[in-house]
Every structure is written in structure tokens, then in C-alpha cells.
Amino acid sequence: MGFDRTIVRQDALEQLSQVDSLILDIDGVLIDVSESFPQAVQEAVHLYVQTELGWQIDAPAVTKTELDHFKRAGGFNNDWELAEAVVLFLLFKSLRHGVRRMSRIRRLPPTLEEFLSQVSAEGGGVGSAEKVALSQLEFRQRRDLARLWKRRLIIRLAQELYAGPQFCSYLYGFDPELTTKTEGYLEREKILVDPSLLKNRWRLGIVTGRTRKETGLVLARTNLIHTIPETFWMTDDDHPRKPHPLALKIVAEKLTVQVGVYVGDTVDDLKMVKDYQSQRHPADPVIFSCQVLTGHGGEKNRTLFLERGADIVCPSLNDLLLLLHQWSSKGSEKRGSF
Question: Which domains does the chain have, with CATH numbers?
Fold first, then answer.
């Protein structure tokens, strides 16, 4: 395991042996979604601009690396909103330059990095992306954007592709009609966690951008459905939604956390914990952030997470669990502090 690649800040290190609770994200933490959500988003965007907008597709609409850029900008924890934002960006460039050929759209300004820099400065997320785009379009172009950017259709395409005919009705309440795949991308997801490392050790909760049904499906697949009761979940169906720090506080209070760790894999996960910490009252639970490198961006996120103040950066959830086991058994031995 990657103890030699685990970094723990000194204040968190001093309290590792006191950790009584773990609050977990799902995607990139419990399961590997690298072959599911990105593909669903990419294919949904491709289908939308090709069939709905009638563009000439002679280049990729969006790459996996570009999806990582959106995630790093912040506010794109929800992959359906990510799909909306990608289409928005492409439409913005198409309308601004009067171009409908994908290869030309990709070459024209602004670059994705320039656009996302402005989005991040506005707070991140699809709402900020819309604000940035509208601020740089003329009235007629804004009117066309409102007509062409069919957000519900984009989401439906992504959900059909993700869930497929086997799970679409259960998860989203409709059967696939716009896509023809025989298997949803969710069936490519792989389990990341060894559930035996979690059982009977800590109080456990979930704070995720997934819906409640999606969460239950994942916990059943990872054999944790009885280990983490639904009482201790905060999902996309609940309010406030992640990454609002109150979502984290609600679960922590239900678990009666004294010292806990939230395990995530994106900058939104880290921001949620940092916001919680900055607003924490002395009587509130202590919660540290652990950022794992099994999600979007992988090992490339290590420096980013450290620069943004993660308390723990760990190769995987399993590595964190083994570290906590070892720490509680060996007492004050210190590893990887700075």
C-alpha cells in the first residue's frame, strides 16, 4: 500500500488515533467511475451537438482531460451539470464566431482554460459558466443560446447512456428512448474499497452528489448497504446539497462525531471541508479532509490538493484505512508529516 505516498499535516497527524468516524464520498472513493461518467458525458455531448444542433463533427466535442479541467475549476461535482456546461461552452463559441464545425470551434478563442478561469473566479459551476458566456454574447446570440441549450435533453441523454436499459427506469423513472446502447456505462464501474476494512471500526456516513437510488445501488454493490444505514446519507436528493458545508455537518451530528475524516477526490470535496472548518464552532465535531487520488485526474491532483490545504492526501481509501488501523495500534508513530 502507499504509506510512503501518503501525506498528513501535523495537526491531523496528532489526532489520527482519535478518529471515530469516516464520512465518505462515493465516486472515485468507493468505486472507480473513470469508465462510466466521463464516457456518458462525452457521448451525450457528442450526440447532442450532432443530432440536436446538426453540427459537423470532425473532432472530439470534449476529451477526458478537458472534463478534468472542468472538475478542477470547481462547482462541477454533478456530472449531469458538467454535461450541460460542456454544451454551453461549445454553444457559446459557436454563436460568438458563427461556426458549426467542431474542429474550428475547438481552435477559436477563448480556450477552455481561459473560459474556466473566468468561471472559477465567479465561483464555479454551471451557473457561473452561464453568467460568463452571457456576458460575452450579443443580445441576439443570448436569445439563440436560450433556444439551443436544452438542459433537460442533455441530462436525459447522459442518464440514458449511464444507466442503460437495465437501470434507467429504476434510477430515473424512464426507459431509454433517445439512445440505443444495450448496456449502461455504470456496468463498467469497479469497486475500489475493501469493505472488510470498514466494518466494525468507525461510525460511517455518506455525503455524495449521487441521488439516493444511485447511492443505494453502489452501497449494495460494495457490500456496504447494511454497514452504512440510510439515516447517515446526504445525497443529491437532500438539502442542502454537497458541497454545502451544512450537508457535512448534518451527517457528522447524526453520527455524533468527535473527530472525523471526510474522504473525497475533487476540489469540491476539499472546499466543502475547508468551508466547514472555517465556520466550525468550538462545540462542533472536528473533521479533517482526506483527498484520495483514485478519482478524476488521479495522481496529477496531488500537488493541487496540497496547495489548497488538504489535511491528508492518500493514494486510495484503502491506504487511509490501513494507515488508521496502523496508527491506532502503534500509538504515536509519525509518518509522512510536514
Answer: 3-33+189-330 (3.40.50.1000), 37-185 (no CATH)
